[in-house]
Amino acid sequence: MSISEFDKEVSAAMGDTVGTVRRCGFSMLNRVQFELEPDDLRPPQVIDWDSAEPYLLARFIDELTD
């Protein structure tokens, strides 16, 4: 798949323009298999902004700005 085809597919899936997809820097990853170390098996570092309590969001933002 070419980069242009990839950008068009991501654009269609996200509902954004191809230009927006290119500005966001999406890229294809090589499918390289590797073995995970035990330290790699940690929970994802994400926050669901839509379902988090407001006090958690405020705390997270404060930590980012310190």
Describe this structure in words.
- This protein has 66 residues and is mainly alpha-helical.
- The protein has a domain at 1-28.
- The protein has helices spanning 3-14, 18-24, 54-65.
- The protein is flat, with a radius of gyration of 18 Å.
- The longest helix is centred in the N-terminal third of the chain and has 12 residues, at 3-14.
* Overall helicity: 40-55%
On the 0 to 100 scale, the average pLDDT is 77
Structural class of the secondary structure composition?
mainly alpha
Number of helices: 3
Q: What proportion of the residues form beta strands (DSSP E)?
A: under 5%
Question: Radius of gyration in whole Å, from Cα?
Answer: 18 Å
Shape: flat
Number of strands: 0
Major β-sheet annotation: none
Uncertain spans:
none
- End-to-end separation: 43 Å
**SSE series:** HHH
What would you say about this model in short?
This protein has about 70 residues and is mainly alpha-helical. The chain has helices at about 5-15, 20-25, 55-65.
